[in-house]
Amino acid sequence: MTTTQTGNTAETLAADHLTRQGLKIIARNVRCRGGEVDLIAEHRGTVVFVEVRLRKSQRFGGAAESITATKQARIVLAATHWLNGAGRAQADRPCRFDVVLMDGLSSSKIEWIPDAFSAD
Q1: pLDDT in tens, 69-107
Q2: Lowest CB count within 10 Å: 10, 23, 92, 100, which one?
Q3: How many Cα atoms sit within 13 Å of 69 on the Cβ side?
Q4: Which residues contact 95 (CB under 8 A, 6 or more apart)?
Q5: DSSP three-state, residue 115
Q6: pLDDT tens digits for 5-31?
């Protein structure tokens, strides 16, 4: 499986998990120059920007350690870009940043962290 295929599989597993938790996926792989958001969802009136992190090995740290301040800033940039463009109808709603951590391509290896970081 290529890296792209592995990433797509991880995002699909994460989206399925979040859907089972009551979130509605409204966009995937939103990109702008300098940033990307893996999933955008709606949950109880809140727009949720989701970063999906897969690590198959602990060699360089787990999935959580890979979400650096720089990575967070890139996610916030892409979220802002989306809210000012395609998602402008959602711009007045509350927003949060969630993380889905995966230490393998299995639905049993998913850890969902709501409100994992802020845009500040």
Answers
A1: 899 999 999 999 999 999 999 999 999 999 999 887 777
A2: 92
A3: 1
A4: 46, 47, 48, 49, 79, 83, 119
A5: strand
A6: 888 899 999 999 999 999 999 999 999
Kindly write down the DSSP assignment for every residue of 23-71, as one continuous string: -EEEEEEEEETTEEEEEEEEETTEEEEEEEEE-S-SBTB-TGGG--HHH
What is this structure's pTM?
Answer: 0.90
Residue whose token pair is 């090995």: 57
Nearest to 43 by CA among 82, 95, 117: 95
pLDDT at 62: 56
